[in-house]
Amino acid sequence: MAKTLLRAVGDRLGPLCLLLDAWYMRGSVIRAALQRGHTVVGQVRRDTALFELPPPRAPGRRGRSRLYGTKLDAEAVAQLPVSQHRISGYGGRMARLRHRVCRPRFLRGVIVQAVWCELQKAGGGWAKQRLLLSTDLTLSAFEIVEAYAKRWTIEPLFAALKLTDGVGAMWQRSRTVLLRWLHLVQIGRALLVLLTAKAEPETLALVRPGGWRKAATLTPGLVKDALARQFRDFEAFRLVPTTRGKSGQFGGTGPPERAAAA
Q1: On the chain, which terminus has fewer CB atoms closer than 10 Å, C or N?
Q2: 223 CB-near residues (< 8 Å, 6+ apart)
């Protein structure tokens, strides 16, 4: 699905810096992005196999050049130079960074800039180390962390999809069912955004902002709550025909007992 989105959207937008969630930092997706002229920044597991670039082959020596050099283990990483920077994308928190140009084994020879990042905790000390990879070798370690911090702008959308819209419970469904459900959910979300953007008087009249909000406040969440109140007693099951192609006539005009609340 990620590669399909790259084909559908990436070619229209031109070369991009693609921020990938840790789940999508897969070799096939990254290589597909590189083939289309994009660069990639994302987080990978801390135990990802990374290797130094090998020394150049001696003149006159036969055979293929080595692809991988010495493996970068925890001890080698700890000996790398450390720099500290304030990261605006993380609220101005201080970050302790180490970086190295290397080759990950899962990318089959692609050269990347690896950054080991530790953010300072509010109460002192450092958070657990995270490993970021960038296929753009011109970016500094600081710029890579700042670029990856931009992912926070889409985290609320992912949280809403998983927790509010029920996508988190769809993992066991087939691909066709999942795509149909996503289309329905995103159509509903787009309608809420459009109603919020237009801010028509009829919509504002339905909204009941809390006492801590300004009277003119309008968000998709408030619009959703307002519509839910208007359609609270709407029985959608009555729109379904009372016959089925396979089972024929079935008794009852209401929902099953356990589904009445839904």
Answers
A1: C
A2: 192, 195, 196, 203, 206, 207
- Residue 200's nearest CA partner among 223, 228, 180 is 223
Rounded CA gap, 169 and 43, in Å? 25
pLDDT, one tens digit per residue, over 182-221 is 788 888 888 888 888 888 888 888 887 766 666 667 888 8
How far is 118 from 52, CA to CA, in rounded Å? 22
Quote the CA–CA distance of 103 and 236 in Å, as a whole number: 56
Q: Report how far residue 147's alpha carbon sits from residue 159's, in angstroms, rounded to the nearest whole number.
A: 21
pTM above 0.85, yes or no: no
d(CA 107, CA 245): 51
Q: pLDDT tens for residues 218-242?
A: 888 888 888 888 877 766 656 666 6
